[in-house]
Amino acid sequence: xxxxxxxxxxxxxxxxxxxxxxxxxxxxxxxxxxxxxxxxxxxxxxxxxxxxxxxxxxxxxxxxxxxxxxxxxxxxxxxxxxxxxxxxxxxxxxxxxxxxxxxxxxxxxxxxxxxxxxxxxxxxxxxxxxxxxxxxxxxxxxxxxxxxxxxxxxxxxxxxxxxxxx
Length: 166
Hints:
About 35% of the residues are buried. The protein has helices spanning about 20-25, 25-50, 55-90, 100-105, 110-135, 140-165. It is elongated, with a radius of gyration of 19 Å. It is mainly α and about 170 residues long. The termini are far apart.
């Protein structure tokens, strides 16, 4: 019987770098992990909204707006990976403090990454409010709009971070 795993590459092989090698263990990795955790929380909240019965066409449309936010956030993850991998390869930082010479080179990129993560966390809070409103039978339009706005803000912050590095 043929081994179905024979064609897979072994972890740690030359073609695959682990997160410590790609993003480091300091501030850049912290920024990336924080963003990923916020996206995961948004996804979990979105799934919970999807599993609730919609309270009418308007609520269903607003719920879909929140659910579609997961697609937008998933598109941002590779951007965060790209930024943090670039930062680690060009300006490795082992701790949580950016040295002066690195600060001059990367400008406000660390703050932009932190703010983008915070915006995703705010989107999670707005989605959580929508979930609560759905359960209570109230309209979720304002919460759905808030999730869109926070995700747009996160996107713009990441674009500014990319501009800093180009």
